[in-house]
Design brief:
single chain, 587 residues, alpha/beta, Rossmann fold, 10-stranded mixed β-sheet, 8-stranded mixed β-sheet, 20% strand, ligand-gated ion channel, ligand-gated monoatomic ion channel activity
């Protein structure tokens, strides 16, 4: 009978073709029994030579992950010795386990063993044992049609009779593909646009990217979502100095099964919880104030770019220098170039550019050609300028916002963020300018960035900004620094080593491959709302604010004219020849 027990074990082990390493862990309380079955145990190990074999004693288990494990024990007490050494550092929790009991063991002990293993989320486990002359293969099914949720009652799934098992069913059947409407406790909160909760009477609806995904997971795996809505002021919570708060505390303390809602996958969180594979990537950014509004004079220079103004200035400088040089030539040369009796060529250059009339027209063809060419040039430039200026005056043009992190640091901006974001930004250039605040204060600071004079920035993920701008694009929109900090990867956090992780990951991978995550996100997020400019519904009437720059320019010109006029009077009154000659020459 004992040889049949080991033959049955060999058949189960041999059926796992993909196994590359096999871990035998032996525990006996009775040395006599250990010696008695030593030869059979050695034969079993020798027959399993199609992969790498590890043989260890229960009291000397090294720290490495073990995927396929065979425990050989004589009684429940021996099993407990191995059980006390099980952790995620030494075993793959959702790996395969075959537990061979050499001596007779009661079903109550087996049920106690299944409860202990389920407490560690170990479910791919089979017990091979003798019972009333029969060799039974026993497991437990945690979820069944009878709404047995977390059921650990032992169940015989096969028997070894006459040298073979009576059934060719899977030795390790799938147990978590259908949860039969068992409740899964989910702690979550409102975190638009990823997670939003809408209550109506006694029911609720999850929407947003995370909400749609959770609903789809519940449908695919056939479980009921038991929502635990934590305060939106606490939300994720934080992990500081070994303590936890918020939704993460509830997961770590085993109060719920998982938490979802815009969770970034981090090293610190993954030490205390188990994360799913990431399903959504998004940049982490800083909200900055928009550029300040242009002054009235700055608007006058807006139609042309800087290099155009430089080129125009260069043309005037060349024209003035040419006039000065020719003024030192003979009168016949001046008449040939300027035209006869043209005493103010410099003023005429300015008049032509501004569209004023020419009081004295040249008689010679060369002078006429120069004048016509110059006037046509000025006409084109003036028309382009006037057309562009009219459009710019009607727009609320602004200066450029902060473009880089270096610029933000240089200007000494404070950077507000949630405590959970401190972990991600501890090596950033602005680390000394960070301020940790709660979500209420953060929302207030975010709205303050709408003021161009604000001197702080607010951290955020990109999709939150896009969603806010989508809802408020007719009133106000948030501006972001164009230099992104890094990319967030969102995931679901489960209790440590949760049995849900593997099946959730399979479904999430399918959702990603099918494009469902992107499809759900398209309902709430669009890149067209990034740093968008709010346009008016129609043309605006020009008011004093629009035209203030031209009045300022007129006032400046009038002031210069008065000053020149005063100097002319003084030059004549006090007979200052040099000043008279200067005005005669240029004016």
């Amino acid at each position: 009978m004992q040889s049949d027990l080991f033959s049955a074990a060999n058949e189960i082990i041999s059926s796992q073709k993909k196994v590359t390493a096999l871990n035998f862990i032996i525990a006996f309380n009775n040395e006599t029994i250990e010696k008695k079955y030593g030869t059979l145990i050695n034969d079993l190990i020798v027959k399993s030579n199609n992969c790498v074999i590890y043989i260890e004693h229960a009291d000397f288990i090294s720290q490495r992950n073990r995927l396929f494990n065979v425990f050989i024990v004589d009684n429940f007490k021996s099993f407990n010795r191995i059980y006390s050494r099980i952790s995620s550092d030494t075993f793959v929790i959702d790996g395969l386990y075959l537990i061979i009991f050499i001596e007779n063991i009661s079903m109550s002990d087996i049920e106690q063993a299944t409860r202990l293993l389920w407490d560690l989320f170990i479910y791919n486990v089979n017990f091979l044992l003798k019972d009333s002359g029969e060799i039974n293969l026993i497991t437990f099914m945690p979820f069944t049609k009878e709404m047995n949720c977390g059921n650990t009652r032992p169940k015989i799934i096969n028997q070894y009779v006459n040298g073979s098992f009576w059934s060719e069913v899977q030795y390790y059947p799938e147990k978590l593909t259908n949860l039969f409407q068992c409740p899964v406790k989910v702690v979550t909160f409102n975190a638009p646009p990823m997670m939003m909760i809408k209550y109506s009477d006694d029911s609720f609806q999850l929407y947003g990217v995370d909400g749609e995904m959770m609903t789809a997971l519940a449908k695919e795996l056939n479980f009921k979502i038991d929502v635990h809505h934590i305060s939106d002021l606490i939300r994720w919570g934080s992990l500081v100095n070994g303590t936890s708060t918020g939704a993460m505390r509830m997961v770590i303390n085993n109060e719920v099964d998982l938490t979802v809602g815009m969770y970034t996958i981090t090293y610190q969180r993954s030490k205390l919880m188990t994360s799913s594979e990431f399903y959504y990537s998004v940049p982490f950014i800083l909200i900055v104030p928009p550029g300040s509004t242009l002054t009235s004079l700055e608007k006058l220079f807006r139609p042309f770019q800087l290099h155009v103004w430089i080129l125009l200035l260069l043309i005037f400088v060349i024209a003035f220098i040419t006039v000065i040089i020719i003024r030192f030539q003979s009168k016949s040369v001046q008449d040939f170039v300027f035209g006869k009796n043209n005493r103010s060529p410099i003023l005429n250059i300015l008049n032509g550019f501004l569209g004023s009339t020419q009081t004295i027209l040249p008689k010679r063809n060369f002078a006429r050609y120069l004048l016509i060419t110059y006037l046509l040039f000025c006409l084109v430039k003036r028309s382009l300028y006037q057309g562009a200026l009219f459009q710019f005056l009607q727009k609320d043009e602004q200066k450029s916002e902060i473009q880089s992190i270096d610029e933000l640091v240089e200007k000494g901006f404070k950077v507000y963020m949630l405590p959970s974001s401190l972990e991600h930004t501890q090596n950033m250039k602005f680390k000394n300018q960070r301020r940790a605040v709660n979500s209420t204060v953060l929302s207030e600071k975010r709205l303050e960035t709408l003021n161009p004079l604000s001197q702080h920035a607010v951290s955020s993920s990109l999709e939150q900004i896009l969603y806010y701008n989508k809802l408020n694009y007719k009133n106000n929109t948030l501006t972001v620094c164009r230099e992104y900090l890094f990319t967030f990867q969102y995931g679901i956090y489960f209790r440590k080593n949760s049995y849900l992780t593997k099946m959730f990951n399979k479904k999430i991978s399918l959702f990603k491959t099918a494009g469902l995550i992107d499809y759900w996100s398209s309902d709430f997020i669009s890149n067209k709302y990034l740093n968008m400019k709010i346009d008016s519904d129609g043309p605006k009437k020009l008011n004093m604010e629009h035209l203030l720059g031209s009045f300022e320019l007129l006032a400046a010109g009038a002031l210069i004219t008065i000053i020149i006029f005063i100097f002319e009077i003084l030059a004549v009154k006090f007979r200052i020849k040099s000043m008279q000659m200067f005005f005669e020459f240029f004016v």
